[in-house]
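Re: How this chain folds, sequence and tokenised backbone to follow
How to read it: Take the token row as a discrete description of the fold.
Start of record: The labelled sequence and token lines come straight after this line.
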Amino acid sequence: MRNDENEPYRLAILFEEASKFLLVCGTEGRVSLPEVTIPKWQRVAESLTARVKESWNLDAICLFDPVWEYKPTLDVRCNYQVLESCDTLWEPQKNYALFETASVSRESFISPEDSRVVECSLRLLNEYNSGATPGPFAQSGWLGRLRAWVQQQIGTQGLMLADKQRHFNSSPCFNLMRFETVGDSAVWFKAVGEPNLREYPITAGLAQDYPRYFPKLLGIHPEWHGWLTAEANLPLLQDTDDIENWKSAVETLADLQVELVDREKYLLNLGCTDWRVDQITRRIDPFLTALEEIMKLQPKTPPAILSKCELDELGGTLKAACQRLQVLGIPNTYIHGDFGPQNILSSRTQCLFIDLAESGVGHPFLTFQYLLDCLHRSHPELDATHSDLRRAYGTQWRSFATDEEIADAFKLAPLVTLLWHAMSCSGWQQSGGHLDGDAAKYLRSLVRSMKARASELEYASVA
């Protein structure tokens, strides 16, 4: 693995209710924080806890990132993370030692930066532990409290927790963990905070009311905005190119959407975003006005910068496509704004949906098209199968629309789906120089793709 694919982290690993932490012993009695290197672009909590286990045979969990919490006041050059040991019997290896947190002075550290981070970390930990700063998964001992709650939920199912768990994602208010149980089964716990807080009521509501389509719900924790589900023995759709699995996914999606027709108020009350076509149409003008400014931020050409005239022309095509889609007679229902194969568990006979943060109410074909676009990107060699998937999905809507209307919806959906996806990116509302460079680049690419699809749609209409 090349160096530019790695990322070093210095770790403040706490022991014995944060009364001690692990340090590397240097020369002349001075110390430093232990350091590990993990791959970039992967889950930090999962990678760090795995590397700590590999390096020192120590089971630990992540609490928080002190640099992120104190930005911009904590000026440092390294990545840091605060962890807590889960092993009360662990003994440090040679050149490492456990130090009382109160006994290490600033002058003890080789690096002044380490000293500042440790000082800030302990201060922040006290704020979390006292409740002055909210964050249940940044408090000392949270894993023990969570395991006790999980055992209480699964005990009614005749299950018992095993010793092993994997920590996938973490922040003070967010958590994703897999707990093994005695036997061959496992359960998953997920908790969310802002900006994904609405995923909690959406998941709890849909999993309780429509259990066929989601992993089995075993318990909810309102205080932590968390829920516990049974592990489904199904592969992720992203791990297969078996078109029958993809067909199962689109048929199951249509089944769920048909069941939720005429339940717009229910979905909105759960917290689903209103993406009905009239709402999308209403946002076209402000969206393209913002994109005109974002286009001007492009640092170089090519690609060509779209002019105001080109954006206005695109806006006319977008409005016409939305208007046509809206009058086809296909009702609004549940839509999933991140309906990629990484969020679908699917076999030929069963399909379950996960990660519902981007749930909404809108035209059902947008979610289908989103998945079709994902299939094209990951398996372009399967483009010839798209017509079979459209046929499988469209069959479910024949009680609501004619074959001609369904065919029209399939023609219009690619363009409107791109528009919907672009509008769901919050960055376009932060133009005027405040938009992150990568986000601006992504939005510009989406608008260029919209222009290409608009041209194809106009050509098809003329033909």
